[in-house]
Design a protein that fits this description.
mainly alpha, 82% helix, transmembrane, transmembrane helix, membrane, DUF2269 family protein
C-alpha cells in the first residue's frame, strides 16, 4: 500500500503536542527528557560558570555525537535492519526510532546553540570565534539542524508510523530506507564541509 496504515495515520494526524507525547511514551519519557536535559545542562553550566573551555568541549562533544550518529544511522543501522525479517525489523524500528529522534534533536540543538554562544561576544566568554570560516560553519550547522527536522526525522517517523500496523508494508519501508541512505550521504557531505571550514579557521587559512 502507498499510504500510511490506519493505526499510523491516526497517530500522524494528531496535534503536535499529542504526537510528541506519543513519541515520548514510545521512547520512554525519562529517556526523551534526558536526551534534551543532559546535553543542555552542560551548555547551561558553561554559561553559569562563564567557562569558555566547558562551552567549547560541550560544542565539540555534542557535535561529534550528532555527526557520528547521523552518519551511522543510514549507513549501518538502516541496512542492518533491512537484512532482518519483516517482523523483527518492524519491532526494532518501533523501539529505536522514537529514541533516535529525541536523542538526535537534543544533541544537534545543543551543538548549534553552543556554537552560536561561542560566536556571540556580548556574552562575555571571550573565545574569539568570530570570522568568516566559523560564521559559515555555524550557518551550515543551523541549516543542517533545520534540514534534520524537515527531512530525515520525518522519514524516520514515516517508517515508525508504518510499523504500528500489524502488517507493515515492506515495500514502503524499503523505499524509506533508500531515501534515508541518500539523505544520509547529503548530511555527511555537509558535515564534512563544516569540519573543513572549522579546520580552516583553526589553521588560520
Amino acid at each position: 500500500m502507498a499510504v500510511v496504515n490506519e493505526t499510523g495515520r491516526r497517530v500522524a494526524e494528531q496535534g503536535f503536542v499529542d504526537r510528541i507525547q506519543h513519541l515520548a511514551g514510545a521512547a520512554n519519557p525519562a529517556f526523551a527528557a534526558g536526551s534534551f536535559l543532559v546535553p543542555l545542562a552542560f551548555l547551561a553550566a558553561s554559561l553559569a560558570l562563564a567557562s569558555t573551555e566547558l562551552l567549547f568541549y560541550t560544542h565539540v562533544a555534542a557535535g561529534a555525537v550528532w555527526f557520528g550518529f547521523a552518519i551511522i544511522f543510514p549507513a549501518i543501522i538502516g541496512p542492518t535492519l533491512g537484512g532482518l525479517d519483516e517482523e523483527a525489523s518492524a519491532a526494532v524500528n518501533r523501539t529505536l526510532i522514537p529514541k533516535a529522534v529525541f536523542f538526535l534533536v537534543g544533541f544537534s540543538l545543543t551543538t548549534v546553540l553552543s556554537g552560536t554562544v561561542l560566536l556571540t561576544p556580548d556574552l562575555g566568554l571571550g573565545y574569539g570565534f568570530g570570522g568568516t570560516w566559523s560564521g559559515l560553519a555555524l550557518g551550515l550547522g543551523w541549516g543542517l539542524f533545520a534540514f534534520g527536522l524537515a527531512v530525515p526525522h520525518r522519514l524516520q517517523l514515516s517508517a515508525y508510523y508504518e510499523t504500528l500496523s500489524p502488517d507493515p508494508d515492506a515495500s514502503r519501508l524499503e523505499s524509506i530506507e533508500k531515501k534515508n541512505l541518500i539523505v544520509g550521504l547529503f548530511e555527511g557531505a555537509v558535515m564534512l564541509a563544516i569540519i573543513v571550514l572549522m579546520t580552516g579557521f583553526r589553521l588560520g587559512l
